[in-house]
Design a protein that fits this description.
302 residues, alpha/beta, 7-stranded mixed β-sheet, 6-stranded parallel β-sheet, globular, Quinone oxidoreductase, GroES-like_sf, NAD(P)-bd_dom_sf, ER
Length: 302
């Protein structure tokens, strides 16, 4: 369906790039709590150029470069309609592929760290899967806000990406003794916050890595896991689920301010990973779930 007309508070964006997120594969498969009505086009974080605006939109004009945090019509397309309050100016410092790597990863990372995780400068944070889109965002944000940043990745290339994007130390989560190395690095003091992308694999071990009153922020999971609640009781630790779909308008504005300030300051620099033409979206979905190791944000190019 081609949208050529916007309602009062909407904009029409000519899509130049669209981010691919694991959650879109879960929704497509039907194995997710939030199942959209059909017909459905995936895609939330697009970057492109304003094609037209609704009559009550004042913040943008035709020709503006923008990125979005959500769309009404779906981003896996040539054009996308979005509410104006989900659209943000794209700095000339960044290209369109980088623009498509901003909203979902950086809003999620900021919300997990600060709005839900109450992170403070000087605390330690361990980011599991730190070489992916959300992981890189979390590394950059945490470093900029004064945290001690540790990250894990599954390949040497991934570990180098993590170190280049703010981590003080990186660990290979494919090594059998990587948890011991993390404990040794922290001198057995524990981690204040863990950003967890694959909680169905790591959550039980995370509870042993935490400091007293530490927090595991569950950003991603692909299934169930058995844990011992006593491991949380012993340290009075918390397991907190995070999903961007439940953000409030106030939280979205806070995330946007932090992100736009980070772009202006220069520390927010999205890393683009594999890029696919739109017609290869099925391959992109397969690769984002089954790749040997993430290396930046996966992007579609219409």
């Amino acid at each position: 369906m081609l949208f050529n007309k916007c309602n009062s508070f909407q904009v029409l964006v000519k899509v130049h790039a669209c981010g691919v997120n694991p959650v879109e594969t879960y929704m497509r498969s039907g194995n997710y709590s939030r199942i959209p009505a059909l017909p459905y086009t995936p895609g939330s974080d697009v970057a492109g150029v304003i094609e037209s605006i609704g009559e009550r939109v004042t913040a943008f004009k035709r020709g503006d470069r923008v990125f979005t945090s959500a769309t009404l019509s779906g981003g896996y397309a040539d054009y996308a309609v979005a509410e104006a309050d989900r659209v943000f100016p794209l700095s000339d410092k960044l290209n369109f592929s980088q623009g498509a790597a901003i909203a979902i990863p950086y809003f999620t990372a900021y919300r997990a760290l600060f709005i839900k995780g109450h992170a403070k400068a000087g605390e330690s944070v361990l980011i599991h899967g730190a070489s992916g889109g959300v992981g890189i965002a979390a590394c950059q944000i945490a470093r900029a806000y004064g945290l001690q940043v540790l990250g894990t990745a599954g390949t040497e290339e991934g570990m180098n990406i993590v170190l280049r994007n703010g981590a003080h130390q990186a660990f290979n989560h494919r090594e059998a003794n990587y948890l011991d190395k993390i404990k040794e690095y922290t001198k057995m003091q524990g981690i204040n916050i863990i950003i967890e992308m694959l909680s169905n694999v790591n959550l039980a071990a995370d509870l042993h890595l935490l400091s007293h009153a530490g927090r595991v922020m569950v950003v991603g999971s692909r299934g169930p896991i058995e844990i011992n609640p006593r491991d949380a009781m012993n340290k009075e630790s918390s397991i907190i689920g995070v999903t961007l779909f439940l953000e409030t308008e106030e939280e979205r504005r806070e995330c946007a301010r932090a992100v736009l300030d980070g772009i202006e300051a220069g520390w927010l620099n999205p890393v683009v990973g594999p890029e696919y033409p739109l017609q290869e979206v099925a391959k992109a979905h397969k690769d984002i779930i089954h790749s040997s190791g993430a290396r930046g944000k996966m992007v579609l190019l219409p």
